[in-house]
């Protein structure tokens, strides 16, 4: 038994998802059981700091340096809260897998800069504060191998959701949307995966701007408005939508600067705020459907995950446009809310067991690589029985 904690903070910047799972096996023998999952919200002040650090116009090196450690303490607090609620001690846990908080993602030498990505939330702080080994920086090695550094979740999607009889798309709708296409009877090398464009990020921004809410709960606001056609047409001209895969994106392309530019491009004051939310919700749906029909073409079933799967209006749009079976993770017995935190815990388990876990057909990397950086616990807290991770790893080495 391997007890692992997964930490995820995405482009929505709403807070940290933390899960405790029991993992059995590794590679294609992986299975897991969710023991406990929690969400912890970022304060408005911390969210503002992350937004500022993610802006070319507003960030500075001192601010990023400080925020790296501040987020490390924030992630540590989430781990401690999770352990308390799960009634576990630090010495019970084999490792923590932390995605970190992305503040910049720049694959493919955009704007004449080196391909690069930066997720902050100091792993040394997490390891010191919790006394638990930490796996972090999952995206860097894939970019070093010539990939986009994203999406990385497809490896886990394949392990958990491959289907012998159907061509399945797993669509995550977080701040950014991303898909994993698993053809029936396909191998890991047959996967197609990519970011589809904005998920909740742009919707959340206008909901906050015009309604002072964090998000459109259930899609209720969007359901009351009408499409602003000139705005939707301008949004659909964004070059990322028709860009060939593999591809990934983030706040750099669909964040505040771009949203303001789009709103300023038309006489936005003549429209109702509900219409603006409706239009951005349709934009998210259109970007998803476009990727399916342009790059996937043959699919039988869609499985939705992430916060966007709780937006009933967005889900309704997808069902109407796709005209096939569209399910949520809950429909299949999984939890949409913790999908990515669970995925990174499983990716951490692959790293600990020295297994490659990127999917070159999804990221564009030149080869499969072992992902992540391991930060050892700074003092001994491991349990001394024969169920620890080291015993299992040593046994595995003997088998080969």
TrEMBL record:
Belongs to the anhydro-N-acetylmuramic acid kinase family. Catalyzes the specific phosphorylation of 1,6-anhydro-N-acetylmuramic acid (anhMurNAc) with the simultaneous cleavage of the 1,6-anhydro ring, generating MurNAc-6-P. Is required for the utilization of anhMurNAc either imported from the medium or derived from its own cell wall murein, and thus plays a role in cell wall recycling. Keywords: ATP-binding, Carbohydrate metabolism, Kinase, Nucleotide-binding, Transferase. Coiled coil: none annotated. The lineage of its organism: Bacteria, Bacillati, Mycoplasmatota, Mollicutes, Haloplasmatales. This is Anhydro-N-acetylmuramic acid kinase. The keyword Phosphoprotein does not apply. Its EC number is 2.7.1.170. One of its GO terms (biological process) is 1,6-anhydro-N-acetyl-beta-muramic acid catabolic process. Residues 381-400 are annotated as: Disordered. SUPFAM superfamilies: Actin-like ATPase domain. ATP binds at residues 10-17. Pfam families: AnmK. Pathway: Cell wall biogenesis; peptidoglycan recycling; Amino-sugar metabolism; 1,6-anhydro-N-acetylmuramate degradation. It is an enzyme of class 2 (transferase). GO terms for molecular function: ATP binding; kinase activity; phosphotransferase activity, alcohol group as acceptor. It catalyses: 1,6-anhydro-N-acetyl-beta-muramate + ATP + H2O = N-acetyl-D-muramate 6-phosphate + ADP + H(+).
């Amino acid at each position: 038994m391997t007890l692992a904690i997964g930490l995820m903070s995405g482009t929505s910047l709403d807070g940290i998802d933390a899960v405790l799972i029991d993992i059995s096996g590794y590679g294609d023998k992986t299975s897991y059981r969710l023991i406990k999952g929690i969400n912890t919200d970022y304060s408005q002040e911390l969210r503002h700091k992350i937004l500022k650090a993610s802006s070319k116009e507003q960030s500075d090196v001192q601010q990023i340096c400080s925020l790296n450690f501040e987020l490390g303490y924030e992630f540590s607090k989430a781990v401690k809260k999770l352990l308390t609620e799960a009634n576990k001690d630090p010495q019970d846990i084999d490792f923590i897998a932390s995605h970190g908080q992305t503040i910049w993602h720049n694959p493919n030498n955009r704007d004449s800069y080196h391909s690069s990505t930066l997720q902050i939330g100091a792993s040394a702080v997490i390891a010191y504060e919790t006394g638990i080994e930490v796996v972090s920086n999952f995206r860097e090695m894939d970019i070093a191998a010539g990939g986009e550094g994203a999406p990385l979740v497809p490896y886990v999607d394949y392990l958990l959701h491959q289907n012998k009889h159907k061509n399945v798309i797993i669509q995550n709708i977080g701040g950014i949307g991303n898909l994993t296409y698993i053809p029936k009877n396909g191998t890991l090398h047959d996967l197609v995966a990519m970011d589809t464009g904005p998920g909740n990020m742009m919707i959340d921004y206008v909901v906050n701007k015009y309604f002072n809410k964090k998000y459109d709960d259930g899609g209720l606001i969007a359901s009351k408005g009408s499409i602003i056609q000139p705005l939707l047409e301008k949004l659909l001209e964004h070059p990322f939508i028709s860009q060939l895969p593999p591809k990934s994106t983030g706040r750099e392309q669909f964040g505040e600067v771009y949203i303001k530019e789009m709103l300023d491009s038309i006489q936005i004051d003549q429209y109702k705020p509900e219409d603006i939310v409706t239009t951005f919700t349709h934009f998210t749906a259109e970007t998803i459907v476009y990727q399916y029909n342009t790059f996937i073409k043959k699919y039988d079933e869609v499985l939705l995950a992430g916060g966007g799967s709780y937006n009933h209006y967005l889900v309704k749009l997808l069902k109407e446009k796709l005209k096939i079976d569209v399910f949520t993770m809950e429909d299949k017995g999984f939890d949409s809310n913790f999908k990515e935190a669970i995925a990174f815990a499983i990716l951490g388990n692959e790293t600990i067991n020295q297994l490659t876990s990127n999917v070159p057909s999804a990221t564009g990397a030149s080869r499969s690589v072992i992902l992540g950086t391991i930060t050892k616990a700074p003092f001994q807290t491991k349990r001394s029985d024969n169920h620890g991770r080291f015993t299992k790893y040593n046994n595995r080495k003997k088998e080969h």
